[in-house]
Amino acid sequence: MSGPGVGIGWRPALARFVEELPGLVDSGFSEVIAESLHHPHPALLELRDRGARIVPHGVRLSLGGADPVEPERVAHLAGCAELLGAPLVSEHVAFVRAGGMEVGHLLPVPRTREALDALVRNVRLTTAELGVPLAVEPIAAFFDWPEDEYAEGDFLTELLDRTGALLLLDVANVYANARNRGQDPLKVLESFPLDRIAYCHVAGGSEHDGYYHDTHTHALRQEVLALVTEAEARSTAEARLGYLLERDGRYPPAAELRAELDAIADAAGLARVT
């Protein structure tokens, strides 16, 4: 596997843009929502056939739920990895269902011993069925549970220690959570297990009613790009995919997307894909 690069999340609306990125196959990578792969888009399979590194990114597994993960959802993730020849699979440190009800949104896991035990169980159940490593992503959240017993960095470190999972570090989430909690984003970043990074997300956001929202539809902020530089300087992980731009709507002109990818590459000191 080649070294760290810069990529963009694959979406049908971005299929032509991704296809035409000259350096994506050689030095970059992409990511696709795993739940969209029940009927894979031909353009995505063509990208795979060109040798691109593509990561299936799950959003519905509910690793942080009290109930065991559903075997058919784990099997789907494993199938996605096999279909794409993926180097790894990623999912969220979150829950999306409880008591048989689908929430329809990623919700934060209480940082308690009991919740950590359930999360560890579900990560182990998942990794036992995957043929590739699993990376877990801490989410952006507007609230913390009042019964939290761990700081987020300590919670993540113990989770990875007990499961062998890797970290999908979303620097935009770090910035959003720190802003909304009144914390220093750099100190939050430094508390994370940066020696376990599989790859990183970078995304835009906006402020509304006193909160910073991780929207994936706005331009990148300089503060987030600065965290990219800090994350790159502090990561000691030997094998990383690099940094991936997340865009999920209100897509700007291609020139603006290329400029954002170049800005990420420059912030990380990596080769541009454009």
UniProtKB/TrEMBL annotation:
- The domain of life is Bacteria
| Pfam (any one) | MbnB_TglH_ChrH
| PANTHER family, per the entry | UPF0276 PROTEIN HI_1600
Q: Provide the protein name.
A: DUF692 domain-containing protein
Gene source species: Actinocorallia libanotica
